[in-house]
Amino acid sequence: MPSFSGNELTNEQIDELRDAFERYDLDANGTLSAKDVRLALISVGYEITEAELYDLIHSVAVSDEQELDLQKFMRMMAPRMAHVDSDQTLCRTFSIIDRDRDGYVSVQDVRAIMVVLGEVVTDDDIKDICRAVDMDGDGRISLRDFISFMHSPI
């Protein structure tokens, strides 16, 4: 499997990136403009701000180059593909924990998953877990809270 700056891409990821690149290379000149790069990124599940976009482009572009060829696009995306995949896994995990499918993990959901995992926890332990994962402090655990917590340093 090709490696881009130390990040291995699977054949599936290479195909996905190539498809995204070709889909947004509307004039078929073999390069993507910054706007097209952003659309391609969104199509593979990577939402970014405009500032982040230009930082990404400059991480692989030569001097003030504003367009990327396929090779540079893949080199730019290689470290991010693992992030996208892990977020997809976290979304699936969240949906399993969110038993009533209301978009939030409740105290009861946390208690149920702890039972399934065979963990013996007190009500205070569960409240502490919920407080720790509730990253925005609104009293409930959303998908965004869950992903932020899982990516936060321990």
TrEMBL record:
* One GO MF term attached to the UniProt entry: calcium ion binding
Please indicate if the UniProt record lists ATP-binding as a keyword: no
| Top-level taxon of the source organism | Eukaryota
Q: Which SUPFAM superfamilies match?
A: EF-hand
Keywords assigned by UniProt?
A: Calcium, Repeat
- GO-annotated cellular components: myosin II complex
Q: Cite the Pfam families for this sequence.
A: EF-hand_7 (PF13499)
* InterPro entries (UniProt xref): CALM/Myosin/TropC-like, EF-hand-dom_pair, EF_Hand_1_Ca_BS, EF_hand_dom
Instruction: Give every EF-hand domain span.
Output: 12-47, 85-120, 121-154
Protein's UniProt name = EF-hand domain-containing protein
Natural source organism? Drosophila yakuba (Fruit fly)
- What gene is it encoded by? Dyak\GE14019
